[in-house]
Amino acid sequence: MLDNLAPQAPDALLALIKLYAADDRADKIDLGVGVYRTDDGATPVFRSIKQAETRLVAEQESKGYLGPEGDMGFVRALMPYVFGGDGDMGGRVEGMQTPGGTGACRLAFALAQKAGVKRVLMGVPSWPNHAQILADLGLEVVSFPHARADGGADIDALLSALAAAGEGDAVLIHGCCHNPTGVDYSAADWAAIAAALADSPVLPIVDFAYHGLGFGLEEDAAGMRALLAAVPEALVAYSCDKNFGVYRDRVGAFYVKSDTAGHLPVAMSNAAALARANWSMPPDHGGAAIRLILSDEAMTAEWLAELDSMRQRLRWVRERLAAADNKVPGLDLAPLANQSGMFAMLALDKDQIQRLRDQHGVYMAGSGRINVAGLTAGNIDKFIAALADVTA
Ligand code: LMR
């Protein structure tokens, strides 16, 4: 029977981790998978997480099952940060824990499909796993360009796609820090999206995986909140893997927003059934640690300070790259200063990306996406020189 299986290539992004590890050049640069790095190139466990984990080990009395919704204390503690105010938009939001942002996306798409969605409108490029999950579920993708050549978001392309869409369609929107382009919608764009979706049958699905890594927790959520306030129903896939640095612990949450009384419990019962069939219940450890942080003022303050310093460092790298615009005439680096989050797309071709790897030890996704967090005071000049070399 196993003869029937065709071999699959490893996920191209995750494969970079191994390729980079196998390179023994001391000055190699990892701009591949999206993990934050300090200016020393490290990805340390947050101090707030360490404190919470210490408390968890001391205080946790049982590892008995929780249920498909996971740790609801964690899910609810997060809500004021995501949705503002008391966190539930006046009883209109409910959620559950998921295995990372990927689990949350999977659940959002699967629930949308169960509710009748057949096609998902998606700006491209997008995080490659979006297309993989949609293909696995058998949902059709309707793509439109996400960004314009001048480095801004192509709001007209999104609005045209929405105008041509109807019953049975959903639209996937990145809440902030667009992966892979770093190009986010402006406040005016969000208002236009909200107006277009307010009376539309198209279901908004927001992937919110980099909250706080752009301009701040409130600033990064403002556009999504304006959208959610305008539409009768929406789904949100949230990840804590980046903003709490708990990548391998797989900490995410899935939220449903609905204005119709009675829809939330039914939607959540369906989400719970899907979760049970997919992974039964999410891993507990990271969510429990985050619940402890968010229920303690001192640990919350520590986390917010850690998030601030991540964001400031990402801004510093962006500004340094934008300032090097004239040193790399072949590339338009200036827009990176106004873009957001961990990622940026460089207009490099396959050959240039291969030469960066072979000749300069610089590892980035084959799409030309870089993780800007991989650049530090110690390697950024070498990177800029390498870019200048391959684009000369
Ligand atoms: C990335 O895009 O690098 C991250 O979201 C990690 C992942 O799972 O792909």
Question: Could you give the distance between the termini?
Answer: 52 Å
Order of helices and strands: HEHHEHEHEHEHEHEEHHHEHEEH
Q: Which CATH class of the largest domain? A: Alpha Beta
Overall number of domains: 2
Instruction: Give the full name of the CATH homologous superfamily of the largest domain.
Output: Type I PLP-dependent aspartate aminotransferase-like (Major domain)
Outline the low-pLDDT stretches. none
Structural overview:
The structure is a single chain. This protein has helices at residues 12-22, 47-59, 72-83, 100-114, 128-137, 155-163, 187-198, 217-230, 263-278, 285-294, 297-323, 350-360, 380-391, and strands at residues 29-31, 93-99, 119-124, 140-145, 169-174, 203-208, 233-239, 251-258, 343-345, 362-364, 369-371. With 392 residues, the protein is an alpha/beta fold. It folds into 2 domains: 2-44 and 311-391, Aspartate Aminotransferase, domain 1, CATH 3.90.1150.10; 65-295, Type I PLP-dependent aspartate aminotransferase-like (Major domain) (Aspartate Aminotransferase, domain 2). It has a 7-stranded mixed β-sheet with strand order 2-8-7-6-5-3-4, sandwiched between helices. α4 packs parallel to α5 (128-137). The longest helix has 27 residues, at 297-323. The protein is globular, with a radius of gyration of 21 Å. The termini are far apart. The model has no long low-confidence stretch (mean pLDDT 97). The structure holds (2S)-2-hydroxybutanedioic acid.
